[in-house]
């Protein structure tokens, strides 16, 4: 996966958390994850399609409850119906906000799916490796995993790539 | 004034509802997708719509087109993560009056609602 596509996600994470939760975000060192597993307690999963083929997985840990509560403006627990809704809403907002800055790629995002369960794994049939972005806020720490593969390159991107190669 | 909030996320609808309450608008009706919204407005047309774009069953753009077949005047604000210029143009062509990109602050959403209602002269 081209690392230049990660910056839009980092900007989006910061924007969403500052705007909707009034929380500053500190990023840890991103790393490449080569297996197809995510081991977390709560995950928000967004499918990407169009010029890209892949998924974005937001995998918060126990701090997800505090983050979801801050986002929703009410105290939530993992068993509340509104808990996965809030996590899905956040994942959707982060992905949607990032896709406008993906260098002219035409990207469509699916409605979010949310998985809740201790130490679960999210497996992808075709998209590896994933870039893992650790992040922390006053409400807790968690990670975002982005696995994305460009399948159609717009003409302007091909020109830019060719120019870089010369 | 009745305002319909159409978004598949209950959390987002609650955030919108709280913002509207701060502005003095407490008469709201909610729908989780375009199909539910169309069903609800078959009996009574609200005075303002806040419509998400990406939703299951029927997306916001299709909903807007359907509303415009029934009513050309009712103000519609698209509230969405879709931020590309082409998408905004597409929504305006479909008939939306204003556009709010998620994430939004309460001030941003409130300002767009006020602006929209002033333009179309809907009584508070």
Overall description:
The complex is a heterodimer of chains A (166) and B (124). Chain A is built from four helices and eight strands. With 166 residues, chain A is of the alpha+beta class. Chain A has a single domain (3-165), classed as 3-Layer(aba) Sandwich (Chemotaxis protein chec), CATH 3.40.1550.10. In chain A, strands 1, 2, 3, 4, 5, 6, 7 and 8 form an eight-stranded antiparallel sheet that branches. In chain A, a hairpin with a 2-residue loop joins β7 and β8. Chain A is globular, with a radius of gyration of 16 Å. Residues 157-166 of chain A have low confidence and may be disordered. Chain B contains five helices and five strands, in the order βαβαβαβαβα. Chain B has a single domain, classed as Response regulator (Rossmann fold, 3-Layer(aba) Sandwich). Chain B has a five-stranded parallel sheet with strand order 2-1-3-4-5, with helices on both faces. Chain B is of the alpha/beta class and 124 residues long. Chain B is globular. In chain B, α3 (60-70) links the parallel β3 and β4. In chain B, 46% of the residues lie in helices and 17% in strands. Chains A and B meet through α1 and α3 of A and α1 of B.
The unreliable regions of chain B are: none
CATH class of chain A: Alpha Beta
CATH class of chain B: Alpha Beta
Number of helices of chain B: 5
C-alpha end-to-end distance of chain B: 6 Å
The description of the largest β-sheet of chain B is: 5 strands, parallel
Shape of chain B: globular
The CATH architecture term of chain B is 3-Layer(aba) Sandwich
The helix-and-strand class of chain B reads alpha/beta
**Biggest sheet statistics of chain A:** 8 strands, antiparallel
Query: Span from first to last CA of chain A?
Result: 22 Å
CATH superfamily of chain B: Response regulator
What fold name stands as the CATH topology of chain B?
A: Rossmann fold
Shape of chain A: globular
By CATH, the architecture of chain A is named 3-Layer(aba) Sandwich
- CATH fold category name of chain A: Chemotaxis protein chec
**Average pLDDT, all residues of chain B:** 93
**Quaternary state, please?**
heterodimer
Number of strands of chain A: 8
Number of strands of chain B: 5
């Amino acid at each position: 996966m081209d690392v230049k596509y990660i910056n839009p996600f980092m900007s989006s994470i910061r924007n969403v958390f500052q705007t909707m939760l009034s929380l500053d975000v500190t990023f840890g060192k991103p790393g490449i994850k080569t297996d197809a597993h995510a081991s977390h307690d709560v995950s928000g999963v967004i499918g990407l399609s169009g010029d890209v083929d892949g998924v974005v997985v937001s995998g918060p840990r126990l701090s997800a409850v505090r983050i979801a509560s801050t986002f929703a403006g009410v105290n939530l627990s993992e068993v509340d119906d509104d808990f996965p809704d809030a996590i899905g809403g956040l994942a959707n907002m982060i992905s949607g906000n990032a896709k406008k800055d993906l260098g002219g790629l035409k990207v469509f995002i699916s409605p979010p799916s949310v998985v809740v369960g201790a130490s679960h794994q999210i497996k992808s049939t075709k998209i590896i490796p994933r870039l893992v972005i650790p992040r922390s806020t006053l409400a807790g720490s968690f990670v975002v995993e982005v696995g994305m593969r460009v399948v159609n390159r717009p003409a302007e991107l091909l020109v830019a790539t060719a120019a870089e190669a010369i | 004034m009745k305002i319909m909030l159409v978004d598949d996320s209950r959390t987002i609808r609650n955030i919108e509802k709280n913002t509207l309450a701060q502005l003095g608008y407490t008469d709201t009706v909610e729908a989780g997708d375009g199909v539910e919204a169309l069903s609800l407005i078959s009996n009574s047309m609200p005075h303002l719509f806040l419509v998400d774009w990406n939703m299951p069953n029927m997306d916001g753009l299709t909903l807007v087109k359907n509303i415009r077949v029934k009513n050309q005047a009712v103000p519609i604000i698209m509230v969405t993560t879709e931020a590309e210029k082409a998408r905004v143009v597409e929504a305006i062509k479909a008939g939306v009056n204003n556009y709010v990109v998620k994430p939004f602050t309460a001030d941003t959403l409130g300002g767009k609602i006020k602006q929209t209602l002033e333009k179309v002269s809907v009584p508070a």
